[in-house]
Each structure stands twice: as C-alpha cells, then as structure tokens.
Amino acid sequence: TVALIKTLANQSVLAMSNAKLFEQVQEKNKQLAIANEHKSLFFANMSHELRTPLNAVLGYTELMQDGIYGDIPERAKQVLARVQTNGAHLLSLINDVLDISKIEAGELSLSLGDYSLRAVIETVVNATGSLAQAKGLRISTDITPDLPVGHGDERRLTQVLLNIISNAIKFTDKGGVMIRARASGGDFKMAVEDTGPGIAPEDQARIFEAFHQVDSTITKQKGGTGLGLSISKRFVEMHGGTISLTSALGEGSTFRVQIPVRVDRQMEAA
Ligand code: ADP
Description:
The chain has 7 helices and 7 strands, in the order ααβαββαββαααββ. The protein is of the alpha+beta class and about 270 residues long. It is found in: Cell membrane.
C-alpha cells in the first residue's frame, strides 16, 4: 500500500509539473505569436512608408525623361534610365516585403470578382515578351478555347503567373517556355514548363519558403529576393488551390497551379 501511495503521489507531482510546463510553453507561444505579429506589422508599415517617397522619385524621373523640364543631354538620359530601372526594382522588392508581411499578419484579403484566365495569361505573356525576346526564347501557349469565366482575385492571380513565368524566362538561357491552361473537374489547371537549368530535389520543397533561393551561381547572377514563390504559394492557397513543381537538373522545370474556377470565400494560407 505504501508503495502504491508513493507511486500515486509521484504521479500526481509529475502530472502537476507537466501541467505547469504545458502552461509555460503555452505562455511562451503566445508571446512569440504577439512578437511575430508586431514584426509583420512593423514591416508592413515600414514598406508602406518607403513606397511613398520612392513613387515620387520614380514619378519625377519619368517626367524628366519625358522632357517636361527641358532637353536632357544624352549621358544624363542614360543615367535617368538607370535610376528608373533600379527604382522600379526597389519598388518591386518593397511590394514583395509588404505582401508577405501583410499575409503573415493576416491582413491581406482577396478582392474577388469575375475574370478571364485567358486574358490574365495574355497580359502576363505580353508583359514578359520583350524579356524573352531579348534572350531569344520562345514563349508558347496552349489554352483550351472553352475556358469558363473564373471568379477569384484577378490581380493576385496575375501576380502569381507573372512570377512563375518571369522566373521561367529569367532562369532559362535556351529553348523556351510553354504555358498550358485548361479547366477540369471545377478547377483551372495551369502549367509553366521551361527548358532551364532545373532545380535539385533537395531545393524543390524549400524554394516555396520565404527568402529561400537555390544556392547557385546562376541564382546569384539573376538577383531577386526569394520571396516571389512563397507569396505565390500563399495567394494560390488563399484561393483554395495548390502549387507544385516537377523538375530535373539539366532538363528544366514545370510549375503547376491548380485553383477552383469559382472561389467565393477566401481560404487561410498555410
Ligand atoms: P527570386 O526569383 O526573387 O529569387 P522566387 O521565390 O521567385 O525568388 O524563386 C526562388 C528561387 O527558386 C530562385 O532564386 C531560383 O533559385 C529558383 N527558381 C525559381 N524558378 C525557377 C526556374 N524556373 N528554374 C530554375 N530555378 C528556379
């Protein structure tokens, strides 16, 4: 009996200390979540504050380029073009940081409406055409003619496709990029296939994480933030969809996006 009482007493002490430990862990987690939220809000505010003056810089640069302030010498025109390119790059970095912080703070919501997936793809192909042409790459599309009207966030879906297609162009040096789209079983199914360097198996899951870039000379040469795919993944998930990758080194990569044709309610991103 004494042994039994001792065991029971030990067990209850253990249970008590377990409960205390559990409470402490919960408290720590709560503190971490609050700190994380503060961090996201800080980034969101800061990015917003950075955007305003940068937009002014870009606006004045454009006015100068347009000759509003008089004729500009040739050398100065080249410098202005550089200011413009670098400023635009900085703006897109700031926008990426703003998006990811807003998503993490749970402050980004989709703006749902009707859209044409064909028009979205055409917009992106037009926007990236000159980049592909400059590299001698062929962009082809294979879009089934009977695509239904979609319902979702057109701007965010354009952003997702723009990111995947411009990555495909950015990392591919010869060959081309094939974009396919069809609808089946209530979903849009899209694939962007390139003939680029491919992505090693160990990097394939990680490139969807924020700031992760494949550690290679090619990636370093091309610049970028490593944010595009993680933002894209969140947007696709907010549409209740999935994004996936199949790739083989030396052969190329295929990114696939599947989203419901009609999205009536925003899903939580993982
Ligand atoms: P960024 O392009 O700004 O670096 P992303 O999140 O869009 O950021 O991509 C993350 C990384 O994934 C890239 O830096 C690159 O290493 C790799 N990657 C993405 N798309 C491709 C592709 N089509 N071919 C080869 N590597 C790619």
